[in-house]
Specification:
Layout: E1 2-8, H1 18-37, E2 45-51, H2 59-68, E3 75-80, E4 88-94, H3 97-107, E5 117-119, H4 128-132, E6 137-142, H5 147-150, H6 163-182
Helix pairs in contact: 1-6
Length: 189
């Protein structure tokens, strides 16, 4: 059984793609790294996917889906971060009402960093195939006021990233992915 965390590498045609979507790739990598460094061993596999070809029609995600859809019942949740890694506010979630209640309960663990909101929909080109077929999905919600200042521009460099805000995003990704991966049962569909 798999809990999938992800971001994509798509610097597109200008800039470095540090914010879009290097930040999402980084926090996904960091989540697994933190869990390993803490010596935690969840019941389910945590899988990191760094998608390619998102801007070219999601070809990387489509290929991955085609290769793994026969095991769709083993995917507990698919998570994608693709709105930068600015100050987080919560998660977008797509799934059953019962699963949403569980995710809301998990988000209360993030009260110390004031990131507890659960929004009505999850977005993500790379996880859309899975969500369409009933796999619960989550996307990071953060303060996107500055997102389009840098989106697909020469200004999308590492200088855009705020290490403190990225750490908060990584904390959200780490807590949510670990708790779901370590629950007794998979999220209800």
């Amino acid at each position: 059984q798999v809990v999938l965390v992800s971001g994509h590498l798509d610097s597109w045609d200008v800039g470095q793609g540090a914010m879009d979507d290097g930040g999402g790739a980084f926090i996904s990598w960091e989540a697994l790294s933190l869990i390993k460094d803490l010596g935690l061993h969840p019941k389910r596999t945590l899988r990191l996917v760094l998608w390619t070809g998102e801007e070219q029609g999601g070809v990387g995600a489509k290929q991955y889906y085609q290769l793994h859809k026969e095991n769709i019942s083993n995917f507990d949740i698919v998570m994608e971060s693709d709105e930068g890694t600015f100050k987080p506010s919560g998660l977008g979630f797509a799934g059953s009402a019962e699963a949403r209640d569980i995710v809301k309960e998990i988000m209360t663990l993030l009260q110390p960093i004031n990131v507890t909101d659960v929004y009505d929909t999850a977005d993500g080109t790379d996880i859309a195939y899975w969500m369409r077929d009933g796999v619960p999905g989550a996307s990071l919600h953060d303060d996107i006021n500055k997102y389009f200042w840098f989106h697909h521009s020469q200004g999308d460099t590492m200088t855009v990233q705020d290490p403190n805000q990225m750490n908060l995003c990584a904390a959200v990704w780490t807590v949510v992915s670990y708790v779901i991966a370590d629950m007794e049962d998979m999220l209800p569909r």
